[in-house]
Specification:
Blueprint lengths: L2 H11 L12 H13 L15 H11 L4 E6 L3 E3 L2 E11 L11 E6 L2 E3 L7 H8 L8 E2 L5 E2 L2 E9 L16 H53 L3 H15 L6
Parallel strand pairs: 4-8
Antiparallel strand pairs: 1-3, 2-3, 3-8, 4-5, 6-7
């Protein structure tokens, strides 16, 4: 922080700005902590981050799995404890070969390096489990990953990834990090749910049209007998009406 901000923090904490850190008592330290949180401090630069990018995530997903729907989200940079970081999500839904009642496949990354172990201790897993996937049409048991034919990848880019240990296998549970992951997951969930609902509506409209077309021949004959305007003309008009009423089912 700048000298001006440092003096402002000391003034709020009631601590002389020329005090020696070795002579700061516990109460003064608590006052300084509260004053820091109450002071508006300029955020650190975020141009040092190196995210993968939404387009590259999509290319990677499509090269690994065949699915019905793909999407990716790159959040704007955020800050935790003065350290900039950025969250990215990649989602593939309706993955070929994945069972609908199996738990989703979750891949975790930190600065483009996969995290292979200790998923239960990771903030990424906590954020995924803490997201209510039932809002997006997926089944989810309490304290568990959702069940769906889906591959989910979560990437955290940061100048200082807060690993839980020297092994660098899991990310610590910082509130700011979990919040950013959840926001990105919710955006992907909304897109996925919109795709599923649109597909269901398409299938419903196609079913309606196919049922009508089963009886259109007999209907044309009956209407022709009544109006004597030509069976083919009536059939053509009925087909046109059927397509117009069920056009949302066209792919």
């Amino acid at each position: 922080v700048s000298p001006r901000i440092a003096k402002e923090i000391c003034a709020k904490a009631g601590v002389p700005d020329n005090s020696s850190p070795r002579r700061i008592a516990q109460q003064e330290a608590e006052n300084l902590y509260k004053a820091i949180n109450a002071t508006k401090i300029m955020a650190p630069p975020t141009d040092c981050l190196s995210p993968i990018g939404e387009s590259h995530i999509l290319v990677g997903l499509k090269s690994v799995v065949k699915a019905d729907f793909y999407t990716s989200v790159t959040r704007s940079p955020a800050i935790y404890r003065g350290n900039p970081f950025q969250i990215e999500i990649g989602m593939a839904y309706g993955v070929e070969g994945y069972a609908a009642d199996d738990l989703i496949t979750l891949n975790r990354y930190a600065n483009r390096v996969p995290l292979l172990y200790q998923p239960g201790a990771c903030a990424i897993t906590k954020a995924v489990i803490g997201t209510d996937w039932r809002n997006y049409g997926l089944s989810q048991s309490k304290s568990s990953l959702p069940a769906a034919p889906m591959l989910l990848m979560v990437h955290m880019a940061s100048v200082w990834v807060p690993f839980t240990s020297e092994a660098k296998e899991a990310i610590a549970h910082y509130t700011e990090i979990i919040r950013e992951i959840k926001l990105a997951l919710q955006e992907c969930g909304r897109r996925m749910n919109s795709f599923v609902r649109k597909r269901e509506k398409t299938e419903y409209e196609l079913k309606r049209r196919s049922i009508f077309e089963m009886y259109i021949e007999e209907l044309s004959i009956a209407l022709n007998d009544i109006s004597a305007c030509g069976k083919e003309k009536v059939k053509k008009q009925l087909l046109s009406i059927a397509r117009e009423k069920t056009k949302s089912g066209e792919i």
